[in-house]
Amino acid sequence: MSSSAEISRELSGSPSITRTGWRRHDTHWVISLFGTAVGAGILFLPINLGLGGIWPLVIVAVLAGPMTFLAHRGLARFVLSSSRPHADFTEVAEEHFGKMAGRLISVLYFLSIFPILLIYGVGLTNTVESFMVNQLAIVAPNRVMLSGMLVFAMIAVMLAGERAMLRAFAFMVYPLAVILAALSVYLIPQWHWPEVAAFEGARFLNTVWLALPVTVFAFSHAAAISGFANVQRREYGELAEARSGLILRNTTVMLVGFVLFFVFSCVLSLSPAQLAEAKAQNVSVLSYLANITDNPVIVTLGPLIAFIAISSSFLGHFLGARESLKSLIAKPTGLSLAKADKLGIAIMFFAIWGAAVVNPGILGLMETLSGPVIAMILFIMPVVAIYRVEALARFRKGWANGFILLTGSLAVSALLFSLLK
Question: What does the alpha-carbon distance between residue 304 and residue 299 come to, in Å, rounded to a whole number?
Fold first, then answer.
């Protein structure tokens, strides 16, 4: 089989999935996974990717689709490989890697998600407070009350059940996708041909290498994959693996289409010097555009995009953290899963609320520290499992495993290099 045929087969679904056809359930999950991936980081993504120049950005854009789809499909396959029908990520890790190694992987998985929830709790409070003061010209309520109400509202959506969660995602993500597309089109008249520097092999490869972690986390919806995979197993039974792959493929298409259009539109509207200035000011691309153009459209849409993006991503990450913490509490304490779930929710509520009240300035460091773990769990661990777990043996052929392992290893090494530097 030719390499092009292999790529086509990997990026398409199994023929058996056509037996059930596309359903509203599938659309809702595409929207929820899209919402999990598109967090506050999208507002900084054009700056982080655009600073390297146009050609590294083009290469990263080409790699983004295969990296996102294949890695998340691998993680979903890992969850679905359990012999137990309702096993979550923690239980699957213990089943395949043993109790001690599985527990360690599960703890790292939780710690990779939880700091991001703290970040979003602070970001959500700051965004709403800033909007009330600057756009609505009203006095914001006490920060303790405001942050408590916002965090409680987000968690209440999750407690209302899967259907309410999916409806909340649809309510938030459809406007987000429309606004992103509209803003990207709005910026087209300001596009200019980018500066094309002379090609330098070593510098070019270094730039692409350091851009890979940004790409991984800009499109990551790993936090929701365990819950997503279990829902598909309940919904589709033996077809769960194929249906999951189809939903993840369509999620990737939506992500790459909307997000990269937004990134390119912003990068082509700003010069390298302006991108560097925005990075130095530590502001989002929309805030920078609003500051240099005094454009009322961007000033209005900026806070709205930030609020929707943070809220939708909060829900997706809470889904993963809740499931993981529930199992981590239940095993050593002997509590039932229902009681462990309630205790875990209470712990996370007060922790997120506390972080939002304190408003710490170390959030970037926390996010960076959780980064390598996400990359290892999303890219490296599922590939290792394919070659260790008999239930995954049928996935050992093809080019995808080598591609995921290579790009994941490069992303992890780039993150570690950035931390050490």
Answer: 9
Q: Is residue 59 part of a domain?
A: yes
Task: Report whether 59 contacts 242 (CB < 8 A).
Answer: no
Confirm whether 62 is domain-assigned.
Answer: yes
CA pair distance 19, 136, nearest whole angstrom? 52
Give the structural domain span for 167: 23-420
Domains held by the chain: number = 1
pLDDT tens profile 202-255: 677 888 888 888 888 788 899 889 989 999 999 998 899 999 999 999 999 999
> Closest Cα partner for 284 from 308, 306, 255?
306
| End-to-end C-alpha distance for the chain, whole angstroms | 44
Rounded Cα–Cα distance for residues 266 and 190 (Å): 9
pLDDT of residue 153: 93
Can you tell me the distance from the alpha carbon of 326 to that of 329, in angstroms, rounded to the nearest whole number? 5
Specify if 6 maps to a domain.
no
The angle subtended at Cα 410 by Cα 404 and Cα 413, nearest 5°, is 135
Name the pTM for this structure. 0.85
Cβ–Cβ < 8 Å for 129, 357: no
In a domain, 301, yes or no: yes
Distance CA 83, CA 80 (A): 8
The CATH number of the domain holding residue 39 is 1.20.1740.10
Integer Cα distance of 335 and 192 in angstroms:
61
